[in-house]
DNA sequence: TCATTAAGTATGC
DNA sequence: GCATACTTAATGA
């Protein structure tokens, strides 16, 4: 395996306060692995043996209900830690991590977690900030599920994707990884049929442009209006 | 308002 | 040419 360059980690929040030799140490302890799209990096309930940093690609974090239906809890963008069960003092992963596109991730054994937290300035605080942010997002989604109509929830979900992993294109902002209507319904507690109808209507209104597995938001401000208290 | 059923078309390996 | 993605209409809770 080629030696990884320190520049891979220098800009990233968990490592932003570290000097090059420290980043070198961390890299030398890591394993890097490439994953095809649709691969499970780890599965819900399995022993949390490693924690991960996504370098490239996108990850879907999926919870499975006892009835077997899937709920997409959140997406991970490049530069973010995931599989950080040790931060929560869990010894199993609380959810499954599936690659939404071809991805590249570093990982470390969980036994290094406490050492990292103690030794490396800013690592622990950044990790807890990440956990806090995800918790906050999930709370707003719970409120949405309880109080908002489907159209508003789907609009809000699309906006979150745009904000977290949008890519500028000529006509607007594109979700940077393949996403199906089924995926969107799994994020919003709806059905692919309803999502399909909504996207078709928004397409007619010029708010989005979508093709198979690709969605470009052409009028984000109008989506913001749709996601608000009243349509 | 929305899920479900059902029956179709489109797309891409 | 097949599986998967997507669309649309009808029905009914």
Q: What general outline do the C-alpha atoms trace?
A: globular
Sheet-strand content, in percent, reads 15-25%
Broad structural category: alpha+beta
Q: Using the coordinates shown, work out and report the CATH topology of the largest domain.
A: Jelly Rolls
Percent range for helical residues? 25-40%
Which H/E pattern describes the elements? HHEEEEEEEEHHHEEHHEEH
Spatial strand order of the main sheet: 1-8-3-6
Instruction: Tally the helices.
Output: 8
Largest sheet, in brief, is:
4 strands, antiparallel
Total domains, how many? Answer: 2
CATH class of the largest domain: Mainly Beta
- Give the termini distance in whole angstroms: 53 Å
Could you please describe the fold and organization of this structure?
Strand 4 and strand 5 form a beta hairpin. The protein has 2 domains: 140 residues, Jelly Rolls (Sandwich); 79 residues, Arc Repressor Mutant, subunit A (Orthogonal Bundle), CATH 1.10.10.10. Helix 5 crosses helix 6, helix 5 crosses helix 8 and helix 6 packs across helix 7. It is globular and about 55 Å long. Strands 1-8-3-6 form a 4-stranded antiparallel sheet, with no helix packed on it. A 4-stranded antiparallel sheet has the order 2-7-4-5. Strands 9-10-12-11 form a 4-stranded antiparallel sheet. The chain contains 8 helices and 12 strands. The mean pLDDT is 94. The structure holds a DNA duplex (13 and 13 nucleotides).
Descriptive key words:
231 residues, DNA-binding, 12 strands, 8 helices, Jelly Rolls, alpha+beta, 4-stranded antiparallel sheet, 25% strand
């Amino acid at each position: 395996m080629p030696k990884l360059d320190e520049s891979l980690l220098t800009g990233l929040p968990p490592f932003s306060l570290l000097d090059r030799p420290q980043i070198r140490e961390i890299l030398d302890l890591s394993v890097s692995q490439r994953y095809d799209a649709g691969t499970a990096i780890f599965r819900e309930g399995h022993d949390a043996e490693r924690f991960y940093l996504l370098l490239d690609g996108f990850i879907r974090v999926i919870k499975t209900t006892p009835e077997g239906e899937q709920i997409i809890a959140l997406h991970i963008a490049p530069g973010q830690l995931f599989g950080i069960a040790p931060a929560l003092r869990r010894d199993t992963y609380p959810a499954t991590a599936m690659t939404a596109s071809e991805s590249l991730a570093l990982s470390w054994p969980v036994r290094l977690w406490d050492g990292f937290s103690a030794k490396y300035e800013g690592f622990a605080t950044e990790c807890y900030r990440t956990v806090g942010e995800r918790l906050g997002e999930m709370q707003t989604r719970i409120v949405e599920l309880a109080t908002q109509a489907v159209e508003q929830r789907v609009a809000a979900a699309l906006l979150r994707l745009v904000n977290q992993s949008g890519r500028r294109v000529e006509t607007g902002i594109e979700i940077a990884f393949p996403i199906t209507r089924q995926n969107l319904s799994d994020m919003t507690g709806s059905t692919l049929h309803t999502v399909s109808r909504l996207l078709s209507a928004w397409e007619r209104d010029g708010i989005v442009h979508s093709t198979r597995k690709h969605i470009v938001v052409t009028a984000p401000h109008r989506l913001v209006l749709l996601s608000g208290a009243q349509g």
